[in-house]
Amino acid sequence: MKGASNREAAVQVRNVSKAFGSTPVLRDINFAVEEGEIVVLLGASGSGKTTILRIISGLETQDEGSVAFDGRDVSQLPARLRSTGVIFQSYALFPKMSVEKNIGYGLRLRGRKKAEIDARVDELVRLVHLDEHRKKRPSQLSGGQQQRVAIARALAYEPEVLLFDEPFGALDAQIRTRLRREIRSLLKEIKVPSIFITHDQEEALELGDRIAVLNAGRIEQIGTPYEVYMYPQTEFVATFLGAANILVGTFESGSFRAGKIAIELGETELRFREGQSIKLVFRPEDVFLRKPDNRKQNYQNLSDAVIEEVSFVGAFERLQIRLETDERQQLIVTRPKTETSMNPLKEGDRVSTGVVRFRILPNFPLGSETAAKIV
Amino acid sequence: MSANLSNLRHTHGFDLVKPLSVAALVLMMLPLILLPLASIFIFGMSAGLDKFWDSLTAPDAIFALKLSIVTSFWATVFNIVFGLFAAYVLARYQFWGRNAIIVLISIPTAIPTAVAGFALLLLWGPYGLLGQYLSDEYRIMFTPYAIILANIFVTFPLAFGVIMPVLETMDRSLEEASATIGASRWQTFWHVTLPALRGAIVGGALLTFARSVGEFGSTILVSGNLSGRTQTAPLYIFAKFNEGQVEAANAIAVVLAVFSFIIFSILFFARDWLETE
Predict the structure, then answer these.
(1) Structural domain span for residue A53
(2) Is A4 on the interface with B (CB under 8 A)?
């Protein structure tokens, strides 16, 4: 959580649980969104992220827990009295109303004077760069333009929070990247607290001030993109947000040991029992490969290995290697172009491998991800 | 991408099957639909336009047309309001007996109209189940109200049948968006749901109205077929035909045929316009 302040969070979700029939979809969800902050709820489909959004907006009722805006409990209020701005995946623009009418809808419902509505609509069409399209019907606009109308429509009545339900899901890859930058800068300009839900990790890393990773109805980890990517607290987070290699071993006299492999652990990792089963988790880009005769000791040695497959994936090279240990574990390694041109490798080459940066997680044979959570 | 059927060919060069099949289609329609319709017009005009005009402007004929239009109008108003309400309730809520209600609403389509008229008589007639307890001034059988009641019964499922599928396939997020923006249930219905149903409502109304204007089987039983009092246009045609006044029957037949042609043209050509605008 960001610095302790006396001010209440713009949005506070406390101990929210929800089941559909006998199927639990959310378990004990807790998080806060600060004023002007963007929080991304990241999870696979079925992780419960949409349900959280619907509970915050009042379209769904939680079984337990509460939702508060600026310290005001809104748990019992119907959707229409909560003043949230929901941007639906389909945008849900009213097809029979023009852009202007769509944007002014919330103000008309609130019985504002025509002059006031006109002024606000003017301001908003300019903010979202739709000045020349204001008389058009939604069906005459592109996907990106429709989305901007949906945002302007939500902003018109000054909502407590903006809720984006997979807003880029219906757009193609190129437009998606451009739009999310546009929307992020727009949100930073207007400083309305926002919650995005997505299953796209790249989108989450780029959009969010903080990311909450959801798995099976629980928040596995919440933190800045850097924290969540660099210091994943569970195997799920490590593998869902980027790729990760995992080696299983034991904790022995301050080291991770798996057969011939011995990795010395830093002080922060020295909290395991002697002999406890632990996992070494590391990203493909954190593996070092060297020809065996060219060994430098600026990384922790794993073992010798054989290259099994080399493939080129856009900006980097991806290698599949097999360690020459008793277990013959397979690892995935990625290398930037600078590295591949200096030190080219091909299938069948023998290399020595090392790891630059890693995380240690306890290994529970049947343990759930939450049981494996270490904080 | 959908396949373009007109480009889907089994043969190269000139395809003889195409003109032959179109010709066969028209040929089949000729004795079944086209010639009967044509003969109404041919006979209607055969005695000259003056005679046609006289038949059309006879007081009883005008009364019959007016009565048909007025009773059909009120039956349509009722069935649109009811169909909208029923479709809304059945599309929005899941409850025990929902399917039974849908079947019940649809039943009048399958019941012969004479049976429908007879059923109404057995309920509201002077010796009917409820009718026997009514005092004379509240007896509605053999009055224009009975015609409205019969029209409502016979056209009951039409508007509902057009509105329900549109409501069921409507994007629910439109109504949810309206709610999060701050609309009450009624405001959402008025500003969002109803405009989306405009095409279906107009279509359902035209269908109900056209069907009501032509209703015969139930009307003849419940109206009493009293000339100048409870005789609708189709009953007028039947009565005049029985009296041997073929021109009089024909004139009204022409009007009804033209009328239904106009309504179905509107339905057919304006459907796209009604849906999108």
Answers:
(1) 11-239
(2) no
